[in-house]
Amino acid sequence: MLTRLPLFPESASTMAGRVDALFFFLLGFSVLLSLLIFILIIGFSIKYRRRASNEIGASIGGSLRLETLWIVIPFLLSMVMFAWGADLYISIRQPPPQALEIFVVAKQWMWKLQHPEGQMEINELHVPLGRDIQLTMTSEDVIHDFFVPAFRVKADVLPGRYTTIWFHATKPGRYHLFCAQYCGTNHAQMGGWVEVMEPAAFEFWLAGGTAEESMAEAGARLFQQFACANCHRPSGQGRGPSLVGLYGSQVRLQEGETVLVDNDYLRESILTPRAKIAAGYEPVMPVFQGLVNEQQVLQLIAYIKSLASPPPVAEQQRSELPSQ
Ligand code: HEC
Ligand SMILES: [Cu+2]
Asked: 215, 226, 228, 300: which to mutate for ligand 1, most atoms within 8 A of CB?
């Protein structure tokens, strides 16, 4: 819309137009309301000014109709703002199902980003043009905030849980990334760039990286390293439940309630397993809080997600062999 105006950031995502439309609606509404109030104050103070020094004001009777009107109209207008804003907020927080998931770990004072293929970046994020990109974000220390003005996406990044936003870039280019939550001495330097590339160039960039293993492969390695595999066997015959097909399913807990298995549930199950005990199992899983870092938790989650469908029978039997 107002891209020529140097005060306004560039629009480079599908969300930008929608956020701007709401912004201009709110701005226009506030300006009109302020004007109306100013004009009425000035107009009335002239019209009803005191004309003689002994003049006494006329007494005013109430008007139910008028009062109803000025309650109902502002109420309806505020509901329009609410519905519009809520709709936009929900679409920014709900990534489309086929989005490319990128993992973000914030810390004082840098952004660490990892692609599912394993490529790691610091304060730089390369993404392909024209794809839905989902960011799953967490912090190693304090609250940070991921903000790319050109995409009009912004969300707090909190320690101890995942926040999710998504965007769909519409123009190749380099866009500024900021931390928008004061997070300590070098907060002002906690920024970087998002580089939107043509899909072919992105593939080329990805292939030219130094990543040795994908996130799921790194997770599989950690799964052996921390001996998770001893208890969690694909057959379900270990001391813990099988994690095959777990992601996205509903798990029954000891107290009888069921929970949806998402990133947050997996994170909690790994770091503080006592918080929610799966029905039919003993609370024997060791606490991994402090033993694995945020990056490793994300890799373990990526691995568990990759187990989404049961492996072919032959493979299952192979992993049953007493190889360890
Ligand atoms: C000593 C055996 C043991 C080890 C080692 C172990 N777990 Fe567990 N795990 C369990 C048991 C038992 C449960 C079910 C009870 C519970 O919810 O705590 C469980 C539950 C889970 C769940 C939730 C599953 C569900 O169906 O709700 C996840 C995810 C998980 N473990 C991941 C891991 C990961 C990742 C590791 C390694 C870093 C690991 N576990 C190491 C025994 C173990
Ligand atoms: Cu920060």
From this structure: 228
For 215-320, give the CATH class. mainly alpha
Residue 227: exposed, middle, or buried by beta-carbon count in 10 A (0-12, 13-18, 19+)? exposed
Whole-angstrom CA distances from 72 to 66, 77, 104, 267 are 10, 9, 45, 47
pLDDT in tens, 272-319: 888 888 888 888 888 888 888 888 999 999 999 888 765 444 444 444
pTM: 0.78
Q: Do 100-207 and 215-320 show the same overall fold?
A: no
Alpha helices in the chain (DSSP H): 14-47, 64-93, 199-207, 215-225, 228-231, 263-271, 294-306, 313-320
The reply to whether ligand 1 has any atom less than 6 angstroms from the CB of 271 is no
Q: Give me the helices (H) in 94-176, please.
A: none
Measured CA to CA in angstroms, residue 4 lies from 7, 8, 11, 172, 195 at distances of 9, 8, 11, 18, 22
Q: To which CATH superfamily is domain 100-207 assigned?
A: Cupredoxins -  blue copper proteins (2.60.40.420)
> Where in the chain are the domains?
100-207, 215-320
Locate all alpha helices (DSSP H) within 211-312, ordered by sequence. 215-225, 228-231, 263-271, 294-306
Residue with tokens 């009107």: 69
241 CB under 6 A from ligand 1? yes
Q: CA-CA distance, 88 to 22, in Å (whole number)?
A: 9
229 in Cβ contact with 223 (< 8 Å)? yes
